Amino acid sequence: LHRNKKSIIQNKVIGNTLLLTINNASKRNSMIKGFHDEFQKSIIDAEENRDIFSIVVNGAGDFFCAGGDLNALQTRRTMTEEQKYETISQLKRTINSLFNGSKPIIAAVEGGAAGAGVSLAMACDMVIMSEHSFFSLAYVKIGLTPDGAATKFLSEAMPRQMLAEMAMLGGKIDASRLYQIGAINGISQKGNAMQTAIELSKNFERLPKNSLARIKKLTRHAYGNNFESQLNLETDFMVLSQGDSESIEGIDAFLEKRAPDYKKLR
Predict the structure, then answer these.
(1) Quick check: 115 and 66 in contact, CB under 8 A?
(2) What is the pTM of this model?
(3) Which ranges of the chain does DSSP label H, i.e. alpha helix?
(4) CA distances (Å), 174 to each of 63, 81, 106, 126, 239, in order?
C-alpha cells in the first residue's frame, strides 16, 4: 500500500489503520489531475486488505483539501455537456467510494476544507477538526454551485438556515460552531487532528468487522429511508448478525465475563 513520493495520494499503514494522505500541499491538496484515480484505488486496496480495519483521510501540510483545481475548471469551458458530466462523475465515484465502503473512515481536517474538500470530509463516517480550522462552500463566489453531495451531507448535520448561510454567502464556518451542532465528532489542538483521528481509529481494532459494516450501512441509509424501509433493513441485518460467528463470540464472551476476541474472526 506504500506509494512513491510523486504520488498525489500517499498511503501508510499504522497498526490496523490506513493513513491516506492527500500529498499536494503546494496547492492546498486540491483535486488535481490523477487525484480521483489514486484516491479510489487506495480505498479499494484498503477494502481488500484484511489487515486494515479502518481508514484515516488527511491532507499533507496545514490544509485538508481545497476541493477542485480551478486551473482545470478554467479549461472545461470549451467542453461539451457530456464531457463535463464525465469529469464531474470522477468526484461522484470518489465520494461513493467513501460512502459505500464497508470499513470505518475518519477525516482528520487540519486548517480547513473548501469546496469539494467539504464533501470529502463529510463523506467519511466521522470527522475530527483541529481548532481554528473551518469549512467553506464558496462556490457562489465564483458563480458555481456545490457538488459531491455537499448539500446532502450538510443537510443531515445542520439546520437549513445554516446550510443556506454556508452555501449562499460562501463564508467560513469554524470547527467550534460545527462541533456545537454535532456536525463533527471532535476538535483537536492545532497540528494534532491526524493523531487524534488515529487514536480514535484504534477503537475499531477491538470491534467486529461484519457488525461494523452493517452498522455503517444502516447509518448511511437512515436519513433517506422511510420508517418501514429502515425497520426492514434493521431486521434483515439483525437476522444476518444473529447467524454470524461474531455474535456467537460476543454473546459467549459476555456470558463468560471475558473480553471478546473479534480479531481472530477477521
Answers:
(1) yes
(2) 0.94
(3) 35-48, 70-75, 81-100, 116-122, 150-155, 160-164, 175-180, 193-201, 209-221, 227-242, 245-255
(4) 14, 35, 19, 17, 42
The pLDDT confidence band at residue 4, using thresholds 50, 70 and 90, is very low
Task: Report strand pairing: 186-188 vs 126-130.
Answer: parallel
pLDDT in tens, 158-200: 999 999 999 999 999 999 999 999 999 999 999 999 999 999 9
pLDDT score, position 5: 52
Strand partners, 19: 12, 56
DSSP H or E run through 51? none
Which residue, chain included where needed, has cell 461522484? Answer: 92
For residue 257 the three cell numbers come to: 465475563
Q: How many CA atoms lie within 13 A of 264 on its CB side?
A: 7
Let me know how long the chain is: 266
Say what percent of the chain tops pLDDT 70.
98
Q: C-alpha cell of 172? A: 467560513
Q: Residue 232 belongs to what H/E stretch?
A: helix 227-242
Backbone angles phi and psi of 51, in degrees to 5: -85, -5
Query: Phi and psi dihedrals of 247, rounded to 5?
Result: -70, -30
The pLDDT value given to residue 1:
52
Which residue is it, cell 453531495? 149
Confidence band, pLDDT 50/70/90 cuts, at residue 78 = confident
What are the C-alpha distances in Å from 7 to residues 10, 202, 251? 6, 26, 45
| Residue 149 grid cell | 453531495
